């Protein structure tokens, strides 16, 4: 008599999710790409140090009581006049540059990530409805997207940020400025996701499994979310990775122009704007080191996005 394998034996023989990931083509492509590995390591270091800023920073740049004006404009530690613990020097308010960079990176990452999540949610739903229903729904959503794309992204973000901050009560302006920036960036960025998902949805809705689901009476919402959406996510993830770096740059640009984060809640763009005022007075380190951190962060994100785009492209396999 032959023993029949039990369900427990089948589950034990089935590889786990982590094992399947380590054996996937995507992980193999990542390990073989030195640029992707290097970018991931650099990005990981930047993110970890940013979110460990309260532990690693010698000073809290958001605490006005911690600022020491007699230590203003100290040069980096390797230059004459540099002092510990200010490794990268201080600004005109006695704020430690390294502390400002770590806290500012955390703000920039939060705004960039939140804006990508908001624009991704809005764009995916708009693209699904436009591609599935077509007709006036498709025309309305795409014409709104065309209008937004006809205006430079910086102008859209400046307009939304300025109007929203002016409408907020004075006591909520500083607390809500980060949310205003997220909405300003997301208002423009959702169009790209909507176009990608719309194109994929128009292809998927003509396939047999969608037609069969309609015949058996599957609700449209369930059909879009459970069946069509998973088949449209690959290009969306690639676009989201690349737009993360773009969102960080937009936030830095808005802060540099004075319509972003305030000086008492500095992001990388705010630090660059403040330091730019003293560039030609000899205090070059105030603007140089935040600029380097911004470049490192954006380049690492874009390199990962380029690798992911190539790795998920079936024509390049």
UniProtKB/TrEMBL annotation:
It holds the Pfam family BPD_transp_1. SUPFAM superfamilies: MetI-like. Residues 105-305 form the ABC transmembrane type-1 domain. Keywords: Cell membrane, Membrane, Transmembrane, Transmembrane helix, Transport. GO terms for biological process: transmembrane transport. It comes from Sulfitobacter alexandrii. This is ABC transporter permease. It is found in: Cell membrane. InterPro entries: BP-dependent_transpt_permease, MetI-like, MetI-like_sf, OppC_N. Belongs to the binding-protein-dependent transport system permease family. One of its GO terms (cellular component) is plasma membrane. It is a multi-pass membrane protein. PROSITE patterns: ABC_TM1. The chain crosses the membrane at residues 35-56, 109-135, 147-169, 175-197, 232-257, 284-308. It comes from the Bacteria.
